[in-house]
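Intended use. Records like the one below are meant for learning the mapping from a protein sequence to its folded structure. Do not use them to infer anything beyond what is encoded.
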Amino acid sequence: MKINTDPNKIEELLNRSVVNVLPSRDDLRKVLLGGKKLRIYVGADATGSKLHIGHSTNFMILEKFRQLGHEVIVLFGDFTAKIGDPTDKGTARKPLTDSEVRKNLKTWKRQVSKIVKIGHFNNGARIVRNSKWLSKMNFSDVVKLASNFTVQQMIERDMFQKRLEEKKPIFLHEFFYPLMQGHDSVVLDVDVEIGGNDQTFNMMAGRTLQKIARNKEKFVMPTTLLINPKTGKKLMNKSEGNVVGLDDESNDMFGKIMSLPDEAILPIFTDCTYLPIDEIEKIKKELEGGVNPRDVKVRLAKEIVAIYHSKEEADKAEQNFVKTFKDGGLPEKIDEVMATNGEALSELSVKAGLVKSKGEFRRLVLENAVSNQETGDKITDPNHKVISTAIFKIGKRRFLKVVIK
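Structure written out for the chain above:
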């Protein structure tokens, strides 16, 4: 596949959702305009089974490189996931087992394929797992790798400095994480690594190792993190239940986007869609001019659903949302569970996967967010027993039909 050196496409690659390019944008721009075929990769640790739109930013940039003709690699961190990246963590991560990692990775290829074209045809992306080389390293290899860095270099990381100030422990194995991620770059012999801005330290470790191992330049592209510009917190927060997954069903995906705060509109348009920047600038002016954010959010929800499903599914999801949440109706698809008379609604909700725990159900009840759609009554008892077939609304967007046997 011939390398495309379109300057407009290259400029978008270098600037949209890209915080910085190290050592410089100008240097990478010259290489891209020169037509050299580069090897570029994005890595993600298998710490969970669900990829979300916060991950999509890096995969979208990778796909744009692929479309220009460059060789692209998606790395699934199955070995590094077992160690745990200390980035942005006040405490050490809990190590994962092999079985947990395998379970997490089960659908990752399908999820990533919604963004990046994968395969050995038409310059498709290659998927690799770093256990292939990291699991084979012996102690001598690890010592040799560690000899390239000093403790002073490692301890400079912000999260380690914070823990030192708070007198929290820093475990020795956490120093090995950037070494392993850096070693990935050497094994894959990459020219460019794309990753979130919080991964800059880890990616720069790979740049250092590439210079030592091959006397080769490696470009680092730290990208925008999907955060709430008002609060500074991550928008895709599992603890708050607002994660928009790449494999979410279309109606659920649409509803989740609509439930996000208004200040999330522009960051998501910029970092998680293909809408041209000039169109996003128009939307920004419309919002500043007083247009209803809800109407703009509908457009955003349709853009997102169209990427992971289709335009037709996006239209249907909008119709379903209006019917369910604006007109007070019920969605077309409702989770259904069989029960015996007197079973607890909390247990049935957990069984159906609508809530993660009885604790979450209890919280929703106390927030008056659970109701019987047949009677219109709010459920006020966290231990509520179901005695007849009924449809319940659990939270803002979830519905459950309990059928008594």
